[in-house]
Amino acid sequence: MANIKKLNPDSSPQAAYGARIRQFREARGWSQDEFAPRIRYSSQHVSAVETVRKPPTLRFSRRSDEAFGTTGTADSFEREWSEMRNGVLLEGFPEYVGYEGRAVEIRLFDVGLIPGLLQTPDYARAVAYGHVERGSITYEQADERVAFLEERQAALVRSQPPMMFVVMDESCLHQAVGGPEVMNAQLRRLEEMAARPNWIIQVAPFSLGERRAFYLPVNLLTMADRSIVAYAESQAQGYVERETSVVAPMFTTYHQMQGEALSKTVSVAKISKLRKGTP
Q: How far is residue 46 from each of residues 21, 64, 69, 73, measured CA to CA in Å?
């Protein structure tokens, strides 16, 4: 008889998800080998999800719902996946990401850290694990954040990608994250992304001083109908704003900041010099 690993659904949300997949599968009399082709995954992948060796994904959840007939019900695995995923995100951020995936133009401003959509996996993991070291999240939740970021980055790769405008405070380049190798690879990523035709990356230098337009990270999205969505965060919550009277001044301020920031060419040269360690 096969050695069936005992599951502890109380150990984590992912374990509860895996245990429920097994419960539903066995209730229908399906082995992992019989269930896997129904959702177009391998039996090894199914086993890994059930035993928390792989995190579930949206696609896995939706296909499981189709196989079990739970789509749109209280037992939906997509609903459970969404609750797990959103549980590690600030309130308001999942709503913002829904808009981000449909935007035709994305404008970002960040302070202290490289903007998420430009982060390498190692840089993103170092940031997330920093939260673990402070005790604010678990390693499992940190890995979920990194996986979610990778999904957001992948969503930008499409036949008609959005135009990306990024202004980074110079502090983003000097904040040491993950050690020299991680930072070197991250700065190289910035150079590579800046070479793409739909990316404009600029640095807001320290010399701006009091003329720096924003003091907190700001995201501005232009949608296909030319409406604008703004997103900003406090320490505890994210806020999505669509009211024109609020968003329009932020859009204007962003353009003013772009004018004050270093040009794309000078910004990339600054990033390259920093990576190479030249003055």
A: 9, 10, 18, 22
Per the listing, tokens 């700065």 go with 187
Confidence of residue 27 (pLDDT cuts 50, 70, 90): very high
List C-alpha distances in Å: 195 to 113, 142, 164, 171, 192: 21, 30, 12, 22, 5
- Whether residue 166 contacts residue 108, with contact meaning beta carbons closer than 8 Å, is answered with yes
Domains of the chain: 13-86 (1.10.260.40), 93-120+150-276 (3.30.870.10)
Write the DSSP symbol of residue 29: T
Model's pTM, two decimal places?
Answer: 0.70
For residues 31 and 22, is the Cβ–Cβ distance under 8 A?
no
Task: Tokens 């910035």: give the residue.
Answer: 190
pLDDT tens, residue by residue, 215-231: 888 999 999 999 999 99
Length, in residues, of the chain: 279
Q: Residues 80-130: pLDDT tens digits? A: 887 676 666 666 788 888 899 899 999 999 999 999 999 999 999 999 999
Q: Give whole-number Cα distances, 94 to 56, 86, 91, 167, in Å.
A: 17, 7, 7, 23
Q: What is the pLDDT of residue 1?
A: 39
- Please, are residues 232 and 217 in contact by the beta-carbon 8 Å criterion? yes
